[in-house]
Every structure is written in structure tokens, then in C-alpha cells.
Amino acid sequence: MSKSILLLLTGDIRSLDPLLQEQVYKEFYRLVYPLIMYIMKDPPAVEDIIHEAFVLIIRKSPHQVDEDRLISWIRAIARNTTISYLRKHKKKRDELLSEDIYIENAVPLMCNLAVSTEALVEAKLMEEAIVHYIHQMKPIYRQVIYLRWIERLSYKEMAQKLGVSEEKIRQTLHRSRESIKRKLARDWKVSES
């Protein structure tokens, strides 16, 4: 963790050197931008939310947050600020197009139905959890998931690229999916169907 983020806990960022203030803000920005952008998909709104979350963190800084939990605490504040923003701007939320909401197999969404903010945020958080689970996997599992769903290679192409049999690819892909399903069932109380 960078020392810049730790400076957020001082609660008095105005007393810092202007260059250091800028560095703290940039580090904070890099930390929360992907999370907020993932939920909002609206760059101007993301900028507003980042500013609001930054001010909130400075005001509510607990001064005694464990370093290991600091990043999680900051992300929670950013996520909650995003939810508040969505609630305040309900008209904009209702105008979201169904193609703006991309969640495959995580939470069943029906087109042309209003989806609550909480459901959208929960679905986004579930996607984040799945990505986190993937990052915890063995490198070979991560690699086959990447090749299959990002590069969209066939089993044959994957086998050639990795120098293994197609059966090994099927088996590895199956195991990786089962691992994710088990973790979802454990952490999110989702059935393993």
C-alpha cells in the first residue's frame, strides 16, 4: 500500500504540501476509479462521485483503521457514495438501457423491467467477487479462463497454444468453473445449479 493512501487517515489533508495533496488525490483516484466506473459507466458522474467520496473519507477518517483493512474501507466508502448518487439521480438511473447492464449468468435480469439500485450494485459486486475468485486460482485455471472468455479461443486452439490435449482443457475449464460456483455458493448463498 502506498504511503499516499495512508495520509488520508490524517484527517487534515489541507495541512499537507500541495504537491503531496495532489499525489494523495491521484492515488485515491486510481484506487476507486475502476470500481465506480464499473458501476456507473458515465465518466462525468464518476468524476463527481470520486470528488464526493474523497471529501467524505477526509471528513470521516477514523484515524485508527488497520492498514490491511484501509483499502477495503476506502472502496466501501466509494461504493456507498456511488449508491447514494444513484438514489439521488433516480431519473438518470431509470433511463439506463438494457444493453448498459452486462451481467452474464450472475443475476437474472429481465429486459424492459426496472431494476433496483441495490440489485444492480449487488450484481456488480458479485461480478467483482468472481474476478477476485479467478485471481485466486492456480495460474493454469486463470489462463484457460482468459483464453476461453477473453480471447474466445476454441478448445482445440487453446490446446495447441498451451501444448496440452483438448481433454485437459475441458477438464481444467470444468474445474475452474466448479471452483467459482462453490465459492459463490459459500459467499453469496447462490445455488450451484
Automatic annotation (TrEMBL):
Query: What keywords is this UniProt entry annotated with?
Result: DNA-binding, Sigma factor, Transcription, Transcription regulation
Domain RNA polymerase sigma-70 region, residue spans: 25-91
Q: What Gene3D superfamilies does this protein's entry cite?
A: 1.10.1740.10, Winged helix-like DNA-binding domain superfamily/Winged helix DNA-binding domain
Q: Name one Pfam family in it.
A: Sigma70_r4_2
Q: Does the keyword DNA-binding apply?
A: yes
Q: Name one GO biological process term.
A: DNA-templated transcription initiation
Domain called RNA polymerase sigma factor 70 region 4 type: residue spans: 128-178
Describe the family membership recorded for this protein in Swiss-Prot or TrEMBL: Belongs to the sigma-70 factor family. ECF subfamily.
Matching NCBIfam families, A to Z? sigma70-ECF
- The name this protein carries in UniProt is RNA polymerase subunit sigma-70
